[in-house]
Sequence to fold (2007 residues):
Amino acid sequence: MKQKDLIAVFDNDRDLVKAIGTLKENNIPVKDVWTPFPVHDVLKMLGRESRLPYFSVAAGVGAVIVTFAFLYYTAVIDYPIRYGGKPYFAFPSFVVIIFLLTILLTFISTVIVFQVRTGLFPGKEAEVPVTGTTDDKFVISVGSKEGLADEIITEAQVILSANGAVEITEQER
Amino acid sequence: MKKKYWKSLEELNGRQQQDYVGDHLYVNKNEMSGLIEEKSLNTSSSRRDFLKLCGFSIATSALIAGCERPVQKAIPYLFKPEEITPGKANYYASTFFDGDDYGSILVKVRDGRPIKIEGNDLCPLSDGSASARIQASVLELYDSARFRHPMEDGSQVSWEYADKRVIDGLRSAAESGGKTVLLTGTVISPSTKSIINKFLQKQPGFQWVQYDPLSFSAVLEANRICFNSRVVPSYRFDNAQLIVGFSADFLGTWLMPATFAGQYAGGRRVPAEDPQMSRHIQFESSMSITGAAADERIQVKPSQVKGVLRYLYDRLRGSMPVSIPGFDATLDRIAAELDENRGRSLLVCGINDIDIQVLVNGINYLLGNYGPVIDFMSRIGLRSGDDAAMERLIAEMKNGEVSALLIHNVNPVFDHPDGEGFGQGMERVGVKISLAPSKDETSALCDFVCPDNHYLESWGDAIPVTWQYSLQQPAIRPLGDTRQMQDSMLKWLGEEVDYYTYLRNYWQVSVFGLPEAGKEFDDRWNDCLQKGVFITSIPEGPQPSFNETHLAEIPSGSTVPAGEGFFEMEITQSIAAGSGRHANNPWLQELPDPVSKLSWDNFLAVSPADAESLSLATGDIVRIDGDIRIAVLVQPGQAPGTVSAAMGYGRTIAGKVAEGVGVNVMPLAGFAGGCTDYRVNISTPERTGEKHKMALSQTHHSMEGRAIVRETTLGEYRGNRSAGNEMRQKILDHMYTLYEEVKFDGLHWAMAIDLNACTGCSACVIACQAENNIPVIGKEEVYRRRIMHWMRIDRYYSGESDNPTVHFMPVMCQHCDNAPCENVCPVSATNHSDEGINQMAYVRCIGTKYCINNCPYKVRRFNWFGYARSDKYNSYMNDETGRMVLNPDVTVRERGIVEKCSFCIQRIQEAKIEAKNEGRVLSDEELLPACAQTCPSKAIIFGNIADKNSRIYKAFQDKRNYHLLEELHTLPSVGYLTRIRNKQS
Amino acid sequence: MQNPSELLRTARKAILLSCALLFLSINVSSNENMSALYQETEEAGQVLGPPTTDDIKRGERLFRGLISPGPDAASCASCHNTGLIDSFNWNPSAHEIALAYRDRSHDDFYQVVMDPVSAKMTEVHDSYRLSEEEIFQIKAWMDEFAEHGMESRPVITSLLLFILLFVIFLGAIADLVIFKKIPYKLIHLVVILVAGLFMVKNIAHEAIALGRSQFYEPDQPIKFSHRVHALENQTDCLYCHSIAEYSHSAGIPSTSQCMNCHVIVREGTYSGRFEINKLVEAYENDIPVRWIRVHNLPDHAFFSHAQHTGSAGLDCSECHGEVETMDRVKQVSDLSMGWCLDCHRSTEVDVLDNEFYSLYMQLREDVTSGRIDYATARDTGGTDCMKCHY
Amino acid sequence: MDMYNTAVRPSLVEGNKSYRQVTSDIAGPAERTPARWWYIAMTVATLALLFGLWAMYVTVVEGLGTWGLNNSVGWGWDIINFVWWIGIGHAGTAFTIFLIVFRAKWTASISRAAEAMTVFAVMNAGLFPALHLGRIWLIFYIFPYPNTRGPLWVNFNSPLFWDVFAILTYLLLSVTLWYFGMVPDLATLRDRATSKIRKNIYGFFSMGWVGSVGNWVRYEALAKILGGLAAPLVVSVHTIVAIDFAVSVIPGWHTTILPPYFFVGAIFSGFAMVLTIMILIRKTFALTDFITKSHLDSICRVLLFGSMVLGLAYVTELFVAWYSGSEYEFFTFFKSRATGNYSAAFWIMIVCNAIIPQLLWSKKIRGSLGAMLVISIIINVGMWFERFVILISSLAQDYLPSSWVGYSPTIVDIGIYAGTFGIFACGMLMFIRFIPMIAISEVKGLTNQEKVNREDDNK
Fold:
């Protein structure tokens, strides 16, 4: 087993999609794919799905509860003040703030979780196998944790070049 | 709070001196007030600035040496005077008399500084009230235009030197055989009169002339002719069922307006059980607040008055009157009404014309009003000036017959019609000595100025009416090196006593009639000092008989001059300015005239019809006779063919506030028949094409059909107690609420304003300003509609524009229980207290102005600039001495925050603390906001509405009561009682 | 805008002062004051000539105890501090003495040092063996010291620290984004976090403390000790602060009131005559004593002592702490609005017995029926803005 | 897939470009030294900004008295401009929502610039509520933070408090949307950068983006969530601004129609501003292939719709004022606005907002850049007057005629308004200078789509 990945560069997404399709048919593991724009077929093929929305919902529910509790504590329990003949617990007024603060807290926490999960933060170095993935290069890396057998690598090379890869390199890990 | 009537400061004189360290002419504030609790005077400004800056650049300044705070020093008294408790106010009874107005007053002294004037409720003439001018007089104590020391030709001299020179001057005047003339305003002080008499005896060729810029010569003269008694009788407006006024603004400016307003309101208050009220008809050419209050206002030209009076006289006498075109039917009706009210009617006339006053006397005599309504037994001491004597004096001066002239309390160069002539005459006078307390046009022409004290620094006495003596005591030591006039006179007489001793002796002998000074005298004297007044029995006796000879000679018929191209002009007085002697008082300058709503100016009132034909608009500058350029204000109610302008403006030497404000119209006035004539004919005003900025605080005059001021007639009210106020029930029936209305336990403050009693006199506005440290912002800012008064008098016109009905409505914060302003303040700076007050925490306010927008009554005021500190504004607050008038119990608001009426919360808290500490119920009577306290007509009722026995609760139950803009469901705590006019329908 | 300029002025003053000090220490004889002093001493008929630089130097050494003033005798400076100190010192500071004796003759000074009147001073000064010349030298130094004032300690302001941290903070960010000289991002992160947190903490802390002065304990112009008066001599608070019961203000007693007792009491237990002499002097010369206010409520808060000592029945110590144990009065409470409100929310108000509350019918019923245990100030409007702000 | 290429809609990106061409076309302006007109424009904008800074300095140092406000009119140009700017801001977010939530692909090439516009407009808008405070140095009182004052919180009933949070949330969310939308493109610029400093700066802000599957998956999810949150927010923001007026008691403000009417007005004015800017960008940068006539046509159709809704709202307001029977409402709408002191402003509003945009029915006008530019500017003038009418006419003449006043702005008012234009212009100029003004990755996705479609057609 060689600890190396196969890096293939394509210059359009159709070839990329076809190549991935063929690789998958041949049970060759695709480690990662880099594209200049989201190619939805690729995402679908690789079966990657984000759980971010679930987190957002949970955060939203939490924000509603926290905001309401805060409002109730400050306006009714801690320092009740009478405004314009309204009762201390003036629920209609609370609704607006709960709405706004829910959005605020939800989106901030979602962004933070996004950054933590993707590991994207300002100042992070970009780690790309091949430059140009943000321009017009579509890149596949074939490989797995344990490494790939030589014959699989050869097979992958064949598939990749057959599907229009413009450049194939091996990369030691 | 219960007022404490303090004994005098008399014993203080010796001791207090030591509190005033140093030889400052103006006492160092720190020493003077023993500033243990100095709230808003001095330390506040630096401290607030400091906090603001820290807040503003918090990151940096917080770190600078841990944001070092300024060290505050507390300087206790070296010797604490027993009377002064730091942090607590004392009240001293005293007397106000400036030559024009009289008032028995209480002086509120806090930490040794007089800070407010209130009416003395023990005086029947004041009954606790004080007019706007009296309220404002406290500010003049701290006026920086006051003389601080004696002067010779404008440079400082010592008293010893001045005394010596004056005595020499008087001696040489006597030796030269020329006259020595003492020119004063009316003197009502018996002790001063006795000093003057001594002068008369001692100085050969001595002559005393009393001169009134607001002359009553014609009344005095007419009474001499008719009754052989040259006095002003007292008037009882409360005894009159029918009052007919002829150009007499007796609620605003005529004789004793505050007293008359109280009497008048007494007759105008309508009891619900038995609806009765007096009826008031006013004939006038220019619109006054008296005309506004009248049930019927009839426009006459000044020249028509004589004919109208003659018509009435003839009609009442049963002889055939000479017809006055356009008036006959009305006059017949009024004559019939007068006939019905014999013995309980009153005619008064403000025109300074002997014939007219004789006619008025004749009618009153015919109607039998002398006795019940007009009383010659109790005489009013005010306005005893003699126009003819003044005229003679000018002639004598011009002839060089006068060798010495002493001038006290008058400013004829400014306010006499022939002021210029008087000035020229002065040039020929040997020695001219002014006793003016502050600079004016006349003192500027004098050789010596021996400045008088402010009245709050002086001793004195007065007999305003025959049966009332009143004492005046100092509430503070003289701020400058000044000496009161009587002391100067005594000195020049060569008397050894000071005036205080003289006064005591005088009272002992002449007032109390005691042979010697002893315990009895001391007790009575102290009692008098505490009460401020000493009331003898009201004299009774027969009224003098009437002499008809002169009256018979007065020709009948109208005396309207024929011809075109001229206007009849009347020189009037404004409530704020009066004769102009208080012109350097910024409170008064900024007080909007209740009718025109103009501050900081006088104007030429032109009727709408004339304005249209001459194509004049408000703000146009016109040229009138005497090359006077004056701004026009189109005044609904001004009789067509007439114009009017107020005197007292256009001071040239008076101080920074007054100079350049308005135009002096007195040079237009004439002299006719032995009296100053305030009526003149002028040629048609000529447009100059220039515009003048008019500092109006109200520019829309119609109620637009909205039920703002509700009115009904007496007849309708008799049939239906909610007449005029029917919509209230409808509104109440339609009220739905999402939230239950809040119930207030214990205290719920509320106010009711009886629109029937309110005359629009604006005393409340100044009282509020004095109590609550309201800034003066100057003409430009008022012009920009930013006037700061917490209380304003709204004025609306209804009916036809030529002679409209005028409605006054005092509006201040309504303290709504469902206040729109409270809801919208994001930072909780304004919210509702447990006592039903719409409270405003200035410190918390960040100035979003949202509350201002959302207030339907627009009673909130914003500090657009730092009025209290910037030199740009003509405010007393940025004047070193002017600041001393500030009430330490009220925060001075800084720039950028909102303020408004607080129901005088500082008074409420003070009264509550006192009641709590004494463990008793807070009674309805002991607590009044400044406005209610001073209201001459007692139109403002204040109290605790949670207490079912309170007066305010009863007022709110009255069917006349309504709330402003009630349909908005703001639930105001201020109610208004529907106005009732006694109209004949 | 005021503050930075003030800071600048202070800094400039400090620099000028230190320059002047340096200059003076080099060349004292050129000082005009010195020649004035020379004349004075000469007039007093002293054999001793004008002080030389050496005299002054020796005077200082004597004062500071570098030259022993006598066997077993403590140095002057051990009792009379020459610098600003935080703690309370009964003895007058060197500067105070210097000012007091600047205009007085050498003989007076000799008299007071070597033959003091007050008991406490006699006890300490007894062991001094100082020649007349040495006293002259000490006075010479003190006269000079009077001009300069107390030695100030070096002030490390948090401002400098703040600026330094801010610069580091900016530098870290700049390097992280632009220059990338430091390879390890962890360093950036730690620096930014630590500096940032410190700055935020500092700002927040200072902002909260703004306008507050808890634990403020200034030196007063006269070392008046509440411990001596209120505890040891059992004087009632209201004897001096007599208006506290019926005025907003508690009142600082007038000088004449102090003299009620001090007309007789002329020597203090701890302070000797020095402090009481200040009072007497102020009294005789009609100069009010400029006390330093310790408890400063902001101007926008209105507080009535009458209300709190009256119907509320509070004891002075509930707000002012145990003043009777303080030699120098210290502000114990922070006097924040929260502090006021805490009390207003919890303190019982006697609504049943005080007739004032008879109008509060609902509240009275609540208390009598047991719906609430007791009424608090909050129930009678004690948390309303207008209770204190108007 | 056909939905992108229907008969009515021409292709979204023209010119049959390769990916590299797309990249260099769009990234080009951010990499080149700007043209002379850019410097001129920047100078003008900076001058306006300086004028604004002077006016702000005067306001803060001397006081709000330097504005034209008075005892009755507590809000003037400040809040007019606030509402105006925040209305303009709405378009950017609306475009993003169309793109992300409704998957309206045609907005892809516009949304970036529109979002930038949003950010600068909302920043400008936020400036006014801060500046209109009497004591701006105490602005922190508005936040409910624990304090030593009791603690004293804030008034949660106040619409102004809601407003603060609405604007703050909106500003944060739109900046986040804009920035995160930019990240892949910043990475593109980073990878194309030649100088080290440029590379480092773009590198810092591109957050190490590489375009891997993990990146894209979560990125798309985040975009959907943010877009989803922005959708109700954008509706609520102008609703709350409207509530500022609607919950008050002032006639002309106190109407329930205000929130929807304000929201539509906001979208309307925002789209008009987008139209103005797109026409200018298209012209100056020759981006005709990306911002096609069909884009502009679509915006015009939205404007037409908005104009009609607004016209309806105006009529409804008048109707309700009459039908309610409230004399105050009647006065405000008929005697103050339609015929009285403020009739000029009222009719400008009607003509600019409800009548002139009807010209867009004409296909010819929708095809003329000049005509569209003029109309789009007229609309924003009209929208400014709409706010003027609402604010001033209601405040200057409300319940008690005694407090009726006039209102006119001062040089300081004008200066601040000019200053916000300066900020906006500077911001937009910096934006087109340093940031790709069209979302490159989105457009690449579209070109790809186009190619697929074309090839499918060819088969």
Summary: The two ends of chain C are 28 Å apart (CA to CA). Chain C touches chain B through 70 residues (CB under 8 Å). The beta strands of chain C are 291-292.
